[in-house]
Write a structure and sequence with these properties.
One of its GO terms (biological process) is transcription elongation by RNA polymerase I. Its main location: nucleus. With 230 residues, this protein is an alpha+beta fold. Helices cover 28% and strands 40% of the residues.
């Protein structure tokens, strides 16, 4: 999934002397404090780590409580979604004005009604909330659906994602995977319109129209000349 990346980092973990006999456990404890928080140094939310101690020698820091620093190298799995990236999350709540999902089990995502394309209509039946497609009734979004959406913004402090369902390649992931050709055609048409292909076509029609008008004027002038000779 987009937004996930691996990196290697050289770290120094500072431990209290009382942890010297169980340094490995103390190191893992320190690293676990990084989990599911955004770290500016690494440029993402730390989801997992795999540390390897580089040396058995530790540097002792002077002071009243002389901590010792252990150097290690760690592989980190980071999560850092960027605008326009496509993510997937499980839908946990629907309202007439929004869709709520959870990404990777920890990050909340909200798609507001302004970011839901007109194709989808909200409906409540027998206490169940659902969004269904006006063009294909089998394309539905309800609680438990794996939702594929694009990122608008990511709040690093509260790990909150603002998403969008405006693009045709977003919606119920299962339906999209089964109907690749259908939404691909719709997405291609929308892209052409956005890039101005339609305007170019209109321009060509205008040019053709002007050419035709000039030809008509030439025909009229030719007829007048012929009448003058007769």
């Amino acid at each position: 999934m987009a937004g996930l990346e691996e990196c290697e980092a050289n770290l120094v973990v500072y431990l209290h002397p009382s942890k010297a006999k169980c340094a490995d456990d103390a190191i893992l404890s320190e690293l676990s404090s990084l989990l599911f928080t955004y770290n500016e140094t690494f440029g993402g939310v730390v989801l997992a780590y795999d540390p390897k101690i580089r040396s058995n020698l530790a540097k002792i820091l002077p002071g009243v409580y002389p901590f010792f620093g252990v150097q290690l190298k760690a592989k980190l799995l980071l999560f850092n979604p960027k605008p326009d990236m496509v993510l997937e999350g499980e839908v946990v709540k629907l309202t007439p004005h929004s869709i709520h999902a959870v990404v990777l089990g920890f990050s909340s995502a909200v798609i507001a009604d302004d970011d839901i394309r007109d194709e989808f209509k909200h409906k409540s039946k027998s206490g169940e909330e659902v969004y269904f497609s006006r063009t294909n009734r089998k394309h539905k979004i309800k609680v438990g659906t794996i939702l594929r959406f694009s990122v608008k913004s990511f709040d690093e402090e509260i790990l909150h994602i603002s998403g969008s369902l405006l693009a045709h390649h977003t919606g119920c992931a299962r339906w999209l995977d089964k109907n690749l050709d259908e939404w691909s055609r719709a997405d291609s048409t929308a892209t052409k319109r956005a890039t101005g292909d339609g305007k170019q076509e209109n321009d060509r029609l205008m040019i053709d129209g002007e050419t035709s008008l000039q030809n008509d004027e030439q025909i009229v002038k030719s007829k007048k000349r012929r009448k003058g000779h007769t």
